[in-house]
Amino acid sequence: xxxxxxxxxxxxxxxxxxxxxxxxxxxxxxxxxxxxxxxxxxxxxxxxxxxxxxxxxxxxxxxxxxxxxxxxxxxxxxxxxxxxxxxxxxxxxxxxxxxxxxxxxxxxxxxxxxxxxxxxxxxxxxxxxxxxxxxxxxxxxxxxxxxxxxxxxxxxxxxxxxxxxxxxxxxxxxxxxxxxxxxxxxxxxxxxxxxxxxxxxxxxxxxxxxxxxxxxxxxxxxxxxxxxxxxxxxxxxxxxxxxxxxxxxxxxxxxxxxxxxxxxxxxxxxxxxxxxxxxxxxxxxxxxxxxxxxxxxxxxxxxxxxxxxxxxxxxxxxxxxxxxxxxxxxxxxxxxxxxxxxxxxxxxxxxxxxxxxxxxxxxxxxxxxxxxxxxxxxxxxxxxxxxxxxxxxxxxxxxxxxxxxxxxxxxxxxxxxxxxxxxxxxxxxxxxxxxxxxxxxxxxxxxxxxxxxxxxxxxxxxxxxxxxxxxxxxxxxxxxxxxxxxxxxxxx
Length: 492
Description:
Layout: H1 5-28, H2 36-48, H3 56-59, H4 65-78, H5 81-106, H6 112-124, H7 126-134, H8 136-153, H9 158-174, H10 176-196, H11 201-219, E1 220-221, E2 226-227, H12 238-253, H13 257-264, H14 270-288, H15 297-303, H16 305-320, H17 328-349, H18 383-396, E3 400-404, H19 408-411, E4 421-424, H20 437-449, E5 455-460, E6 476-482, E7 485-490
Parallel strand pairs: 3-4, 3-5
Antiparallel strand pairs: 1-2, 5-7, 6-7
Helix pairs in contact: 1-5, 1-6, 2-4, 4-5, 5-6, 5-8, 6-16, 8-9, 8-10, 9-10, 9-11, 10-11, 10-14, 12-14, 13-16, 14-15, 14-16, 16-17
C-alpha cells in the first residue's frame, strides 16, 4: 500500500461511515422522514417555496441558510420534500463527520486514524445522533463552525485569513447557537491575539466584526431601531431547576464522563475548552438567573456533545496506546467502544416501544432526548392511521377540530383540514413544569362547547398516548378508531 494511502482513505471513511450510520433509520422508516422539525417545519417549507418567497432583506433577518439550500436541492434533484429531507439528514451527518476529521487533523494535530476514530465516535454517540434526528439547521451551522475554526487555526496566509470571515458569515446564517458560540470564541481569540500579538489576530477581528454585524441585523427591530433579544423566564425555584438541569447534563454525558475527565487534561486546546464552557454557561443559566434566561437551555447542553466527544476520544486512545505488560487498559477501552456501539445500534434501529432502557424506561427527559430515532412526531407505525383518522374527520365531523402539534403535520397531508382547525403546541418545552395536552384540550373544549360546537380531536387509543397523556380525560368519547389511533368527541 502506498505511504499516503491512509491520508486518502481516512477522510473518505470519515465521510462514508457517518453517512451509512445515519442512513440506517431512514431506510427502516421508509417512506416517511424521521424527526419532529423535519415533518413539522422542513417539509412544509420546501413545499411552500420558503424562503425564496421572502424578499432578500427579510430573508437575511433570520438563520435561513438551511431551508434555502434544502429548497434548491429539492428543486434541482428530487422535487419530493420527503425524499429531500431523508437524504439531507445522512448527508449533513456525513459532512459533520468529515469536518470533525479535518478539525482533528488541522487544529488538534492528531494522526490519521485517531482523527477517523473521532469522526466515527462523534457520529454514533446518542446525543449527536439525537441532533442528527431533526436539528438539520444546527448541523449545518456546526459544520461551518468547525470548518471556520479549522481555517482560523491555520490562518497564516492571505487565503485562510480571507476565508475565515466568509465561513463565519455562513455559520451565523445557519443557526443561532452555532453563531453565538463562534462569536464568543472569536472574541476570546481577538483578545488573546491582541495580548500575545498572535498572527491570527486579523482573521479573528474580521470574523468578529462581520459576524457581529450579521447577528446584529437579525436582532435589530427596524421599527424601533433597538435590539430584540429573545429571553425566557422560569418561575420554578432554583433547587427544582438545578435538579432538572444538572440531571439532564448527567443523563447526556454519563457514558462519556470517565474518559472526558481523562482526556480534558491532555487536550490542551483553547478552542475545544472554550466551546465546552460557552455551551455550558447558557445551559446552566436558568439556575443562576432564572428571571432572564437564553431560550432553549437544553439545546446548549446537547451542543456540548462535540467537545465532549473530542475529550473522550483522547481518553480512549490514550488507553489503547498505553504500553507495558498489562492489557487491562486496552480491554477497558475496547469494551467501552463496544458499549457505545451497542447503545448506538439500539438508538438507531429499535422502535420506541422496544428502545434501550436507558433511553426509554429510565429517561425522564424524553422531551429533549427521544427514546429512539425511529419516530417522528408520532410513532411511524401510526402515521397511516393518523392520515385515515384525519380523512374521516374531514368527511364526518362538523364541529371544531383541535389537534396536538404532533398530529397536525400528518393530518395536513390529506389537505382537507385547513378550516375549523386549532393546533395545540407543546408550550414551555424547556421548563420542568408544563401544561400537558389533556389540560389544554379541556380548557379549549370547555370554552368552545358553550357555543354549541362539537369538539373533535385525534389521540391514541388503548392507553398508548405519548406526551405524558396515555389516555384522554373521560369527557372525550372515542367515536372511531384506526389501529392505535382514535377519533374523539368532547361531551360537555
